[in-house]
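ok trying this again, last paste got cut off
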Amino acid sequence: ATSSQCRPHRSPKCGDASSRSTSASYAIGCGSATKSETSSGVTSLSWMFLGALGWSFAGIRGCLFLYNAFVLISWIGCAAILGALVFRWCQSLLWSIMAAVFFLGFPGIAANGLTGMENMTFAFFVLLFLYLYSIAADGAGTGKRRLLRAIVLGLVLGLQIITRPEGGLVALAFAGIEAWRFLGTREKEARKNIVFRFLIVAVFSSLVV
């Protein structure tokens, strides 16, 4: 899929973009323009795929629907995961609810995240990775459960990277933390679990990318 797939067969006259949302501009191919073609200008691989998928089924309406649906779901999902993280760290339902409500009601987050672009979805994957890693790092559970957690971690990490290139920084941070945990323990079983988790995450994130 390419960024130009989410545009009409005839390049539209973009005109004044002030009356359109960002997602609408990108969906009709007014994200960026060159002399040779009008392109959505999307730089996210996952957003290119969504745009191409939406266009193939329902044209511009399909692009807009998928863009905005994913952003809305991600916005609510971010609040839920943030609340879960706060509860896990503080064991306080009140603080958990306050964190989620603050996230949903903060004007800057809403203004930036609900433009129809991939920012909010990327944030969702980052928070989801943090939450899942906080569980996996405890090392609890059977071998099968640890394997499943590592696989899901790898898939989520891969989705981060194809949603925004900055996901690669999360991958580097993950590798650094795992190395620090490995060097910080002398227990053979703990080191074995760390290496196992790192390799599984690396393999499955690479498969996504």
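PB: full thing came through this time. The first helix runs from residue 22 to 27.
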